[in-house]
Amino acid sequence: MDSTLTTIPVITLDGPAASGKGTIAERVGSALGFHYLDSGALYRIATLAALDAGVALDDEAALAELCRGLSPVFAEGRILVAGEDVTERIRSEEVSRATSRVAALPAVRRALFELQRRAARTPGLVADGRDMGTVVFPEARLKVFMTASARVRAERRFKQLAARGVAADLDELTRDLEERDRRDRERATAPLRPADDAHVLDTSEMNVEEVVKKVLDWWSDASKLS
Fold first, then answer.
1. Strand 35-38 to 10-14 pairing
2. What's the N-to-C CA distance of the chain in angstroms?
3. Which residues contribute to the annotated binding site for ATP?
4. Which residues are annotated as a binding site?
5. Topology of 8-217 in CATH?
6. Domain limits of the chain?
7. For each of the chain's 226 residues, which pLDDT tens digit applies?
């Protein structure tokens, strides 16, 4: 672990799929002037690359090798891989369903670990994912674990898809999220769980502004102690 990173302020937002981590992390990062790491996007990029290359999603060695060759570029809200804008493609339901399978593989997680660590740079970083506070940034000054019921998360995803003109079945989305939660919790490497020192925040009855304010209040408290 690079001890120099202990001097860089890091906030981690972990939680299950569709818990709103990305939206909150971006808002918090913007409010503080910090960089933002969407770690889930890295796993989605790897999954999309595997699907495009025809790599089997259970071929751990081939997937890890593919990950080591990735050089994604995040700029102005877009994501480029080998010059191609994949911002929309990595959010497809096909990629979403397959990503938790790819992310469960230890060799894949090891291959992407250093890429994520390098995202921490001054003036600070807000990182969202599944294991940001437990594995990637255990020294983070503030760790938050966001959650909500599967049904509430499915309803949020349903609305997002509808806004993009994509038809979806709410019950199917709920079942899919419950299955992804199970895989994330039960995987052998970096299972989904709150860090021991994380603030657990159930957002089922909260709006975005309320969640952002809560995280910023916790950050203010944490900063006074550092």
1. unpaired
2. 20
3. 15-23
4. 15-23
5. Rossmann fold (3.40.50)
6. 8-217
7. 454 567 899 999 999 988 999 999 999 999 999 999 989 899 999 999 999 999 999 999 999 999 999 989 887 778 999 899 999 999 888 998 899 899 889 999 999 998 899 899 999 999 999 999 999 999 999 999 999 999 999 999 999 889 989 899 999 999 999 998 998 899 888 889 999 999 999 999 999 999 999 999 999 999 987 6
Tell how far CA 163 is from the center of its chain: 22
CA distance 104 to 53: 19
Question: How much is the CA Rg of the chain, to the nearest whole Å?
Answer: 17
127 and 25 Cβ atoms separated by less than 8 Å: yes
Q: How far apart are CA 2 and CA 60, in angstroms?
A: 27
Quickly list DSSP for 128-165. EESSIIIII-TT-SEEEEEE--HHHHHHHHHHHHHHTT
Q: Counting beta carbons within 10 angstroms of the beta carbon of residue 22, is it exposed (0 to 12), middle (13 to 18) or buried (19 or more)?
A: middle
3-state helix, strand, coil in the chain (%, to 5): 55, 15, 30
